[in-house]
Amino acid sequence: MNSPHTPTQPLVFESDPVAMRARVAEALRGGLRVGFVPTMGALHAGHDSLVARATGECDAVAVSIFVNPTQFGPREDYSRYPRTFEADCGRLRPLGVRWVFTPSVEGMYPAGDATRVHVAGPADRWEGAFRPGHFDGVATVVAKLLSAVPATKAYFGEKDWQQSAVIRRMAADLLLPTEIVVCPTVREADGLAMSSRNVYLSAPERSRAAAIARSLERGSELWDRGVEAGEIERAARESLVELGFEVDYWSIVCEDSLVPVVELPAAAGGVRPRIITACRLGSTRLIDNRGLSPR
Ligand code: AMP
After folding, report:
1. Which pTM does this prediction carry?
2. Residues 172, 258, 206, CA angle at the centre, nearest 5°?
3. 270: pLDDT confidence band, cut at 50, 70 and 90?
4. Which of 74, 91, 207, 244 is the most buried (most CB within 10 A)?
5. How many CA atoms lie within 13 A of 211 on its CB side?
6. What per-residue confidence (pLDDT) applies to 2?
7. Ligand 1 centre and the CA of 1: distance in Å?
């Protein structure tokens, strides 16, 4: 007898949000726990880890593949974002996924579309400042995806830390019934966080890119030795600039509010600190982050 998520089951493809919701609703009525992994495709081992967590915790798993136009700025990489649908399906087949949700842009943004979800607070700084409108696009598409796939649990990566904080905030504020689960970052052997955008790096850029993860490790060591946050940040930015990066930000923040720890009152207790960074190498923008021990 096969378990509900046996790896041999064929993938079921669905592109219609209403039909997708009906499939999930039927599974939930039958008492199944439904897991959901939203993606933009170009799948790699980081995505696989979210799927593995979902299949481990749920009875039926949906993965969405949708390159969401509203989260890209006008000068960003929407049109050249890697689209590898056949390879993605080959990757998902052995992982025990039940449904692949592949909505069209028109299906997600019907004619006359006039609604955006705006999250303030954790969305205001960093990516929110460098990519105006980005988190409105993210929050809007995730709200729509969770409407089409009203899962028991939805899985997101720590890799996009600020995004995960924004989604947790939105889910709490909109009283969404889906539990948001945030999973650890999967890295290449040299520490570079896996990302669909790593394919943009030239060979020399690729070998330099691991310096970002090394800067996080070094920052964590200095933090553990009691070095002051501002000093750690300055040293990290300087070393990355010397290596040829343009540093949009490299900061130690409270991981929920995304407020820099240097702006917090000295007596602020209970802060969970995290380094977040975005760096550019040539035309490729890379983000990464690392949790720090509380002080
Ligand atoms: P994307 O397809 O880039 O929108 O990512 C889909 C999901 O996979 C998001 O929740 C990401 O945070 C997550 N993800 C992307 N890269 C990684 C990684 N290296 N490790 C873990 N999760 C990741």
Report:
1. 0.96
2. 110
3. confident
4. 91
5. 22
6. 42
7. 33
Answer yes or no: is pLDDT of 3 > 80: no
Give the distance (Å) from ligand 1 centre to CA of residue 158. 8
**Using a 6 Å cutoff on CB, does residue 289 contact ligand 1?**
no
**What is the set of domains in the chain, with CATH numbers?**
12-183 (3.40.50.620), 196-291 (3.30.1300.10)
Cα(167) to centroid of ligand 1, in Å?
13
Q: Which atom of ligand 1 is nearest to the CA of 163?
A: 12
Look-up of token digits 């495709």: 41
Q: Is the CB of 290 under 6 A from ligand 1?
A: no
pLDDT digits (tens, 9 = 90+) for 86-108: 999 999 999 999 999 999 999 99
* Residue 197 · residue 44 · CB < 8 Å: no
- Supply the pLDDT for residue 269: 80
Query: For residues 80 and 123, is the Cβ–Cβ distance under 8 A?
Result: no
* pLDDT at residue 59 tops 50: yes
Q: Contact, 217 vs 286, CB < 8 A?
A: no
Q: Which atom of ligand 1 is nearest to the CA of 50?
A: 22
The residues, ordered by sequence, that sit 6+ positions from 172 with a Cβ below 8 Å of its Cβ are none
Average pLDDT over residues 131-143: 98
CA 232/CA 39 separation, integer angstroms = 34
Q: Which of 11, 7, 31, 36 is nearest to 21 (CA)?
A: 36
The owner of tokens 């949700």 is 101
Q: Which residue has the higher pLDDT, 3 or 89?
A: 89
Nearest CA to ligand 1 atom 6: 39
Within the chain, what is the greatest distance between any pair of CA atoms? Answer: 60
Percent of the chain with pLDDT over 70: 97
Q: Which residues are designated catalytic?
A: 47
Q: Ligand 1: which of 83, 160, 276 to mutate, judged by most atoms within 8 Å of the beta carbon?
A: 160
Spacing, Cα 290 to ligand 1 middle (Å): 15
137 Cβ closer than 6 Å to some ligand 1 atom:
no
